[in-house]
Please model this.
Amino acid sequence: EVQLQASGGGLVQAGGSLRLSCAFSGFTFGDYAIGWFRQAPGKERDVVSCIGSKYTHYADSLEGRITISRDNAKNTVYLQMNSLKPEDTAVYYCAAERYGSNCSPSPLMYDYWGQGTQVTVSS
Model:
């Protein structure tokens, strides 16, 4: 059974940092890509970053402030977010996409989703 568990969200002041974690089970990282998405109230779910075995992607609006990484031994993907802004406030989700050498920025391509973790950035 494929499972993903996102964690690490919280309340942070503008300019601060958070590291989100996505712990997964039921598959091997090489077979799936992992994506991070976020959704603010009343808005669509948008890609933040994704990582496959041979490719990573960052949203243009966030590049330079975020870093995605993986720990194969722990079956965990991390999202380091720095210089956070109030507009980064959202629920952050991690998801898994089959055939994981590349990764897609479209949430429609992902097969499994974690439950989400709330990030709130105060001004």
